[in-house]
Amino acid sequence: MSADYFLDTNILLYSFDPADPRKQRIAKMLVDGAVHEARGLISSQVCQEFCNVMLHKVATPIPCGQLADYLESTIYPLIRVLPSPRLFAETLLIHQQTQYRFYDSLIVAAALESGVSTLYSEDLQHDRVIGNLRIINPFVG
Description:
By secondary structure, the chain is of the alpha/beta class. The chain contains six helices and six strands, in the order E-H-H-E-H-H-E-H-H-E-E-E.
């Protein structure tokens, strides 16, 4: 899988959230680079979490038709890591090593499996290195 970075769900969500224009601008830049320059990717988990939040947890849920269009144009081309027994086994090892919650460990495992060098996430420890993966909070600073 040729890409530079993995996007956690929160990056996609911030690209829709006008509450913090700076975070929205950074998130949009990362998503645009992922899609238009093939620099980033996600896992199926990120797609699922994104849909759940956009349909049920935001102040104004996105209409299904608009979500379907966004999935088709932006999300589906980025999904490069799918569930597998090996992914879940690696997730449990990461959970043991880091004490991250299961779903956070699954994000890290998917990023590692994809072979990227950077995981962009606001929710994990900024600048932590796990294997060949560096976790970066793009909103720091």
